[in-house]
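::Encoded backbone::
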Amino acid sequence: MIRAYKFLMRPTVGQQIALGEMLRDHCSLYNGALQERRDAYRHASKTSIKYGMQSGQLTDIRAFDPARQGRWSFSSQQATLRRLDKAFAAFFRRIKAGDKPGYPRFRGVNWFDAVDFPKDGDGCRWNSTPHDPVTRVRFQGVGHVKVNQHRPVVGKVKRVSVKREGRKWFVVLTAEQDQPEPLPLTGSVIGIDLGIASFLTDSNGAHVPNPRHGRRAADRLEAAQQALARFPRVRSDKRTANHHRAALKVAGLHGKVRRQRLDYAHKTALALVREHDFIAHEDLKIHNMSRSTVPKPDPEMPGGFLPNGAAAKAGLNRSILDAGWGVFLTILTAKAESAGRQVIAVDPRNTSRRCPECGHTAKENRPTQEKFHCVACGHTAHADVVGALNVLRAGLVRRKAQPA
């Protein structure tokens, strides 16, 4: 089993400068490799350059520029080139699937925030001073950096990454560990219905409130973004000190909301995993649900458009993204795997319109957002509870249909 650990680092001022230079030089390598691929395709009879060809040039690049490229780990630079190769692989995959291609873009220094080290001990060393009471991680070209290790690392560390978030620096470890002992069985099964009014509603009728972290921070974030917008759009190295502070404030507010959302998702998922052996949820296509509305041209007025509810849909999209359903479901699946629980996703269609008593399915069964009233048998209940019950039943059917 593979598990990730993320710890806050406490670098000195000199180490912060060195870490920033490491990100800058890896960003330069990434952009240079991207430019080479673009030029080769445009000017050399549509020649495609692969990762192996660019990786073979690293030795010459490091010898040509020892002050910048030569001081960093060779394997970390290979990982940066693999990162670009994955971006192109995803680009071609989207083309074949008929999706929006999204050609790989050049990265600015402020948009390149992570460097990977594929193997612990090659350019980096986790817990580099085991006899020191303070945990440290060593990076080539940076030195031994203090780490705030708030929990033990279980298993063998395979991969190490350094990441910058605003003014903070983190080390991310990927460790391989044995399958943990499953939690004792409780005999409980449950279905959950994710929503906006309540973060989730379960088939037992319990409602978990939606904290709306993004909405609570909206006023402060709007003021910080307005202050940032007053500065001219210039390159990061041309910004004034006030401009840097304004940008960091916006980044800090976004980071706080992200951490609050993650914390809430972890605690909610952990409670479900501890209490239930089987959990069923809707297989939501969040990307499709949060798409913007398509404009409606006005046939009687060339260049004009008809009302299409874009403002209301934008508000709904913000609420969906603020709830963080995708992050929660990912965390729930990972925790369930570690605890020996089973999680199944079911088709969400008509789960809130099907009567759990008689099975009648109709749009009229749900007259309001919260109320469910079956037009066939008269059954009345909360619409989200009905959805959770139908999700649970569909999940149990899928579990029985799965091969042993």
